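Notes from the pairing session

We agreed to fold both candidates in a single pass and log them together. This is the raw record for the first candidate, unedited. Please don't reformat it; downstream parsing expects exactly this layout.

Candidate A
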Amino acid sequence: MKKYNFNAGPSILPDVVLEAAAKAIIDFDGTGLSLLSISHRTPEFEAVVADAKNLFRELLNIPDNYQIYFVGGGASTQFFHIPANFLKTKAGYVNTGVWTKKAIKEAKLYGQVEVLASSDDKNFTYIPKGFAIPEDLDYLYICANNTIYGSEYKTDIDSPVPLIADMSSDILSRPVDVSKYALIYGGAQKNLAPAGVTFVIIRDDMLQKVVRELPTMVNVNTHVENNSMFNTPPVFPIYVLRETLKWMKAEGGLEEIYRRNVEKAEMLYAEIDRNSLFRGTVEKEDRSLMNICFVMTEGNEDLAPAFMEFAKSKGMVGIKGHRLVGGFRASCYNACPKESVEALVACMQEFEQMHK
């Protein structure tokens, strides 16, 4: 049976990327050695890192006064790396769910945290807007896409203080004005690579704003100055990331990827809104392109287990909602093909006909 992968992460990757990675595990770049056992100091792998940075810069239109580095530890490590480097007195955070809550907890170890806005009052089903940003903050922190609840920032905030964003789950899914951000980071396991590598895009002036003495591996300058190779980097995920960026460029770049993502999301949201058995959980203006969350309509909640089993029988994988929310979640990342969304829509329509 054909499988349709909607896992929230680690997520689907393009077939051509998987094929390249599989070949490289046996013979990397004609070296006769496996990618899994080469030295990261070889010219061949140094070229992979350089390619990945250049493609990242080209696809996201990253200005010249920004540096890019790759590091291990996942986004969760960045929750404390950010305040360790930049929180001297007070930082502002916008609370939009689980990941910002975790980041706030870590930041409080280093200084005062002011929660400027929160969507906790409505179970994180919207993105707060119109809040004041004090100019005495060391930085403002947001999480651009809420993977668990399915909300997403649709515009780039104008901030009078350095703006820092976790873009783990929507990086390179839509255009972003990088110049409005002081730092963007994310785990790669949604749209870029297997788990194990984190990307950081940092504006040059932030490298001079580290506020305290830090362990070497925590200081952002370490990774910029050593070209992501102060210690052995996550070689395999970086290679896959490079291949994914090559795939994106070959497919038409960010503009085409964004067009496809909008098309997929609009198709699925339209069915959620039309179908008498399902309803969306997020305010329409803030619905995520990447993580589409829905539940059964009122009076039909008891059909949820039956729909889950029916969807599995049709090849749907990974559509169970997060345990904190319940219901269903279809993660439609860049490599998720339109055909998968069409199959899920057909599944929902058939299930509705069965229960009329």
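Candidate B (folded immediately after A)
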Amino acid sequence: MTYRTILVHLNDKRRAEALLEPAISLASRHNAHLIGMHVYASLPAPPISVPYASRVLGSVAAFDRQETEEIAATFARMTAKQPFVAEWRALKVPHVDLAAVVMDHGRAADLIIAGQTHPDWDLSPLMDFPERLALESGRPVLVVPYVGRYPEIGRNVVIAWKAGRESARAAFDALPILTQAETVQILEVKEGRGRDDAASLAPDTTIAAALARHGIKPTVRISAAADIGIGDELLSRVADAGADLLVMGAYGHSRMRELVFGGATRHIARHMTVPTLFSH
């Protein structure tokens, strides 16, 4: 089992290299067709004559064009002479629902790679949407933190396990990475229990047995989140394991016609310390 098509959403020239490094690494390991995609919105002309409007719109258009060209140049430079096929897509669309465009293309990919939402970027509300990709695309989404560089991922993996559809999807969506990993740890966090209580519980070994049939040799661990939240407990155990990838289900629900992450998923999405593969 392997990834044959990988789409990486490149929305910010400052983070393009950091996103492309793990994308290129995965594409090389799986001989995948790598698609680099940049989508941006065109601004409609004002319905009435506004002083300096054409000059302002012209400046915005020039900025968008330069941004697109610089991201395209980074993609071309970093994928040059690679053993896989690299394809560049840049789309200017007449609306601001950029996530819908990325999902239209991403649904034909085995894996989508996107950047973590950047809290200090003015354009983040428009250009960052990894949560929507994870909940609505129907594809596994690898989210790369906005801080740090991650040229190699998937050597030491932690799977956040919770018996349910989302976790099952995530574990099996990650199989191409897990089969090449050096270590795989299945971590089940029990909420509202002390560490001594958690240690006495029998682990769920069914998923470990299923992965073992794919040639994976995971370890199984139970942890507790009595004093801290599940999200913080996960991050703490990921650090203890020296993991370079977290795999987890993306739990979400509908609120006022908007899909939003559940508590632990939202915490990891906001505070992730390593790239995280989400599946819903």
